[in-house]
Design goal:
This protein has one domain: Ferritin, core subunit, four-helix bundle (Ferritin), CATH 1.20.1260.10. The N terminus is likely disordered. By secondary structure, the protein is an all-alpha fold. It is built from 6 helices and no strands.
Amino acid sequence: MAPNKEHSNSFQCIDALEVSLSIEKQGFVYYDKAAKSAVDPRVRAIFSRLANEEKEHMQSLQNKARFLQPAVTNKSISRKSRAEDFINNELEGKVFPIPGYEEGKAGEVVSDLEAINIGIEAEKRSIEVLTRLIADEKKMDVRMIFNHLLAEERTHLAALEELKQDWDRK
């Protein structure tokens, strides 16, 4: 019997949590570094807030994953590979790139404005990825996980765009 293509491309809840956790981890690492290197106190405050929100989201996702873990321990290893493959191929370093990585100066941001612009572009990429995942996903529970993260990413994008508008008025 041939595998059902539609089903084979679908995520399970645990996969959706792992993908979401990967996005949140990347966001946390970026915003934490950006907060520590920011010169302007307003920029530092926004990046610190975003880093803290990402950390809270990570903890919530980890708790949900721990809750689901007993239910999936007897499942096929291929499920884990599906999430890992997606994270490695579609997310790692592609949503929140580490500035200066190519030049061997990982984590260095030239200016507060550059950090804001990188954050805006990263949130837009995250929104694009999540929108695509939601559109391709048939399972309502998995779509809900991605929709929840999508709402958070849109809030972060709005905060960064507002910060950039304030910056441009200086």
